[in-house]
Amino acid sequence: MAEASNFFVTAKEEILSVLDASVSGQLTSLSNIAGTLGRYGVSIYVLWYAFTVLARKQQTPVPDFIWNLCRFSIILMFVQNAGGWLNTSLVAIDGLKDSLSGNNDAWLWLDQLWTKVQQVAAHVMSKDTSTYVKTDGAIAALFTYFGGILALVACAIVFLAAEVTLKLLTVTAPVFIFCLMFGFLRQMFNSWLQLIFSSCLIFMFGSLALRAGTSFLNIVLSLAIDTVDNRNLIKIGATAAVAGIFMAWIIWQAKSYASQIAGVGVEGAMQGAAAMGIG
């Protein structure tokens, strides 16, 4: 019987710890850079706006000027983490990720599934009673491993990509929030926000798909253990392979749905903000 595995949990912790060490201090550095650029940008804006007023290009110069300065001030407060606003926002993003995933560790599910795959592969191999070469048992075990590994790799890639993307996006937050100050840079902020929501939604849809797919694969593998005999070893292995392929497809589709929904949501939010005069 295969021992309980913690390969995926350990791999995630090691990768994220290396990533944390690599980006350590970058948030403060980028915040200072974005704050400096923001102050220069405000100075240039004031100079440009004064010229447009003198040239009579503004219909309501004083209200527009006050509104834009207030908007710039609020954005710079986030950029420079005044009062811990930026840190609070980043903590909220992490909380959103955990809430959408149901506060379940997907990597622990992967380890449990990997243990199950090893157990079933060893079981079907042991049921081959051939005297010399256990061909049927070996083929069935290979099928089982193929389906299980395909599902595990697909899940690991999707979740790790979302984890790394979210980590890097939060580190670079000051730069992209700064882009919200000026209209010609706003699309960069929109894309950044879309990726944030996409990564968070991947955890929600991915966790749902992982639980559903794992339950389905567990049923198939459990039935394989209960019904396996020397006559249907290859059939059982092929069934396990199909279940693994199906689970991998579900996870990949969950990633696509998350990206599409995030794109629509951000676009609608920014259009609403523009209609209210905020954007």
From TrEMBL:
Xref: Pfam families: TrbL
One annotated GO biological process: protein secretion by the type IV secretion system
Any one of the GO CC terms: membrane
Transmembrane segments: 37-54, 66-86, 138-161, 168-189, 195-221, 233-252
Membrane topology: Multi-pass membrane protein
Compartments where found: Membrane
UniProt keyword terms in alphabetical order: Membrane, Transmembrane, Transmembrane helix
InterPro entries assigned to the protein according to its UniProt record, in alphabetical order: Conjugal_tfr_TrbL/VirB6
Cleaved signal peptide residues: none
UniProt name for this protein: Type IV secretion system protein
Organism: Salmonella enterica
Lineage: Bacteria, Pseudomonadati, Pseudomonadota, Gammaproteobacteria, Enterobacterales
